[in-house]
Write a structure and sequence with these properties.
This protein is an all-beta fold and 124 residues long. The chain contains no helices and eleven strands.
């Protein structure tokens, strides 16, 4: 079973930046597509970004497009989410997820493994 550990969350003012990291305990990490999701209190978990096994294909939610960038370093078994121009609406627990499949996906039930999440709070 793949274990995922998120880090890099915290408190930041609106307009600021954070970089989230997700470390995977998997020697075949490069064979997994990876995604980031987020969940605010009282709301459903929503898709943020995804990246395929090679890093050559990415997909973003409209709400973060142009502000967030997903990337991966397969040599380090790590996926990143660079978040710029943060807004209070971005406040949520951010989760890293992994799946085995042909391509990127945007729904939570298509992912096989999940991290415990890291809190991101954006103040106005």
């Amino acid at each position: 079973q793949v274990q995922l550990v998120e880090s890099g969350g915290g408190l930041v003012q609106a307009g600021g930046s954070l970089r989230l990291s997700c470390a995977a305990s998997e020697r075949t990490f490069s064979s997994y597509a990876m995604g980031w999701f987020r969940q605010a209190p009282g709301k459903e978990r929503e898709f943020v970004a995804a990246i395929n096994w090679s890093g050559g294909s990415t997909y973003y939610a409209d709400s973060v497009k142009g502000r967030f960038t997903i990337s991966r370093d397969n040599a380090k078994n790590t996926v990143y989410l660079q978040m710029n121009s943060l807004k209070p609406e971005d406040t949520a627990v951010y989760y890293c997820a992994a799946r085995r499949g042909i391509g990127v996906r945007r729904t939570p039930d298509e992912y096989d493994y999940w991290g415990q999440g890291t809190q991101v709070t954006v103040s106005s």
